[in-house]
Specification:
Layout: E1 4-9, H1 13-22, E2 29-34, H2 43-54, E3 58-61, E4 70-71, H3 74-80, E5 86-89
Helix pairs in contact: 1-2
Length: 90
């Protein structure tokens, strides 16, 4: 049975995005939430983000300056989190 997993990205951005990509192997439904800060402009972050989008992961943020990510307010994110089977904070 497919699980719903939320990956919360804060401090260890490249590690969190890489881990989210690894979850594609489990064939679960994974959503990524970039919280409270802008994504680092590094080669690793760009590669992981591009790959996540290729695998049709949904990537959300509560920071409007994260271009190319779907914006949700903190309240909207808080309402969505209880629907997940697992939440993985980074």
């Amino acid at each position: 049975m497919k699980k719903k997993i939320a990956v919360l990205v804060r401090d260890r951005q490249d590690e969190a995005l890489r881990m989210a990509l690894g979850l594609v192997l489990a064939d679960d439904e994974v959503d990524v939430y970039v919280l409270d800060r802008k994504l680092a402009d590094t080669e690793a972050v760009r590669l992981y983000l591009t790959t996540l989008k290729e695998f049709e992961f949904r990537v959300f943020t509560n920071q409007a300056d994260n271009e190319g990510l779907e914006y949700l307010s903190v309240e909207q994110i808080a309402q969505r989190l209880p629907q997940y089977d697992h939440t993985l904070p980074y």
